[in-house]
Prior knowledge:
Layout: H1 4-10, H2 27-51, H3 59-83, H4 85-90, H5 92-135, H6 143-175, H7 178-200, H8 206-215, H9 217-232, H10 240-262
Amino acid sequence: MGDVLSEYRSARAGGCVGAGCVSVESATVGFFRGLVNGFLAPFRGGLYVARQRLWRYLLIPIVLNVALAVGALWAAAGYWHQELSQTVTHSPVLGWIFLVVVTMLGGIILFVAVQPILGAVFNDRLSEKVEIKVRGSAPKAPFFASTGKALLHGLLKALLYVLALTVGLALTAATGLGSLGGVGLGALFMAYDAFDYPLSRRNLGFRAKWGYLARHPGLTIGYGVGATLLYLVPLAFVVAPPFAAAGATLAFLDDDSRRAAKVIPGS
């Protein structure tokens, strides 16, 4: 297999790398296949973890995620109970229903925003283990350098989620459609979050990672939708981050193998 880093940085959507290579499938077929594969990837990651018995890689992340989830829900409940106190007083039934809904959504938003910092190192290790099981090996980096990079990228992802929340609130105030914009940006950042692990092991920078997602729009959109739905499953969001990281790694490796198979030297 050639130099993955240089290949990704020079690749073109729907194109073929290397002289004399065969023509590739149509962009439409590639888009829809990526859409399906991306949508299934987070759930596939969970199945892979279960079948390969990789639960030990989830033990500490689950404990941290449960603690974070409780804290996020507590903070969201305290905030919204104060904001909606008059609504609850005047219309107890509808007020409490609305309070529960916004508390759950607010807790999930806080969880998604903070979790990349807490789970970065553990998700990176799980992603690396998945790649080793699939490929037999994975690009290596010194432990402390790898850990530091994972934490730094986790902080960057948290800032992206805060940006999505800010844009959503601003659009809500301006147009009333902020929730759709916020969810869309959040789904996009979830895709960046998960694919960051295999891409970082190949030393891709910030722009190159976004370039990969841009060259794979079907995979990116499908993954964002699938990951969002996984987070919305009751109580599943405590295991969603490692499942999503494992699934994105599998999807990346599938795409990498498929592209490599298409690069056939000319006779």
